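User: Is it possible to get a 3D structure for a protein together with its bound compound? The compound here is magnesium ion. I've pasted both below.
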Amino acid sequence: MHTISPVVAGDRPRLKITAIETFVLLAPDYDPAFTSSGQDTIVVAVHTDGGVTGIGECDVNPWMAKACITAPGTHTMGLSMTEMLIGADPFEIGTLWERIYLGTAMNGRRGVVIHALSAVEMALWDLCGKALGEPVFKLLGGTPRDRIVPYASLQPAGHSFEEYRDALVESAARAKALGFKAVKSEVTMNGPYAHGGMRESYDRHTEVVAAVRKALGPDVTLMVDVQYLWEDARSCYEVVRDWAEFDVYFLETPIWSDNVEEMAKLAAEAPMKIAAGEWLATRHEFRELMDVGKVQVAQPDVGRVGGIGEAKIVCDMAAERGLTIVPHCWKTGISISATAHLAFVTPHCAFIEYLPPQLCHERLRRELAHEEFALEGGLIPPPTKPGLGVEVDWDVVRRYRVA
Ligand SMILES: [Mg+2]
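Assistant: Yes, that's possible. Here is the predicted structure of the complex:
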């Protein structure tokens, strides 16, 4: 099985994994109607006998992720993830990934087990970088880029159409003022992912896209995420063919994730690129999305696809097919940093999703982990700190820990 391990020149420390700790965190003011996975998280800490600890995070129900990582097992194909890691060499990331993928196959191969594995794998990269004193992107091989381009995710607010539209317009103006060269606006007032259970017409969705484009002016790249709004290509196309005038760079998840044949029909017709992949686990789901779904932009999430290595494999598959990568990420500075490290060695990664703390409603994003990135003229220069370069505020962990 093809897997990815750190590229290390010369000697490396000899370490053994001694313990895995999990911290389930919940924002005390969480609101299920907010449809945001940034209101809870799991932080995974991988400890070693050398005193070096790596930190990871994933994007799935954190109580379920904790169970996947810590539960015991009684079958060769349903082993305990923690037991498979204890005593292992943390630098053997690829070997460990394969061991866990096979050893949990009866419970996993996709979905929550792979999402949970993503957090463990991310922690191993952080650990190896810290042990070597190197930023993670340098361990991924390849020629690093000088700069990567973040896009700001705009967040809506309110419960009426007017509040929703105005919050996005205001957020767009603030992102522009912060120097972002690109933004993505959620425009989801209907369908299974509707903000606050809204049920607005498609015409009003067009009105919101128009208002956000007007607030940005012509020079900022605009992406639109409609979060599974339509069931088929025809009903989507009827609406979005009129969005050509708003110069939309891509349309994210217009159609339900499993409906790849309809996605392909839409991708052939729509006046903008079609992007998808935020929920997918492993290269196998992405192969279907790329080869059957025919999307132009693949969006692996390092906290869901299986970790940084599996995301890199997906990026390589996209390169072979001439597709663009724009990773998905909706968690704290831990996952945002992991995404950025991946982007630094992915030349066809056009943008990374970057939720600016200043524009963010979620307190975990603002408070939990402080990444070292700063915008310079709307771009991010390479990180220099060891590992993922993230400082976790352990007081915040203690305050919001629920399991
Ligand atoms: Mg999305």
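The radius of gyration is 20 Å. The first strand starts at residue 17 and ends at 26.
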